[in-house]
Amino acid sequence: MKRIIIHWTAGVYEPNTTDLEHYHYLIDGSGNIHNGKHNVEDNENCNDGNYAAHTGGGNTGSIGISMCGMYGYINHKNTGNYPLTKIQCERCFKLIAELAKKYNIAITPQTVMTHYEFGVKNPQTTSSGKIDIVYLPPYPDIEQSKVGDFIRNKARWYLDKI
Ligand SMILES: [Zn+2]
Asked: How many domains does the chain contain in total?
């Protein structure tokens, strides 16, 4: 596996059936991890159609993890009834570190990124314009362009502790 892509589901605090099909790991609002239907290895080669489709134009070699929530999000001032929680975000950052170690993936902007960042870098794909993750409710001071760096720094901190 060559990279990890981080999402939010735009749903409620628990994963639904569709979420479980589209991501390898989901973190619910309480910080519990749910395994998706597909193994990480299913995304080594997506030509057989048996893979977790989480990032349009970027599924091959990509581990997809998603935080459950953000249904109804409009903007920083109106985040809906399911804003990402701190315990959930921290568990996500730790999971990134665990997966980076397991799959020997460096934590760099090229190898660990949000879906939003992937879309910015790949404007020709259907991932262009995705807003996960432009805002982290528990860390409201982190501006949109810095969210990816913030997540990578958190993951590096956890990696140091493993
Ligand atoms: Zn996404």
From this structure: 1
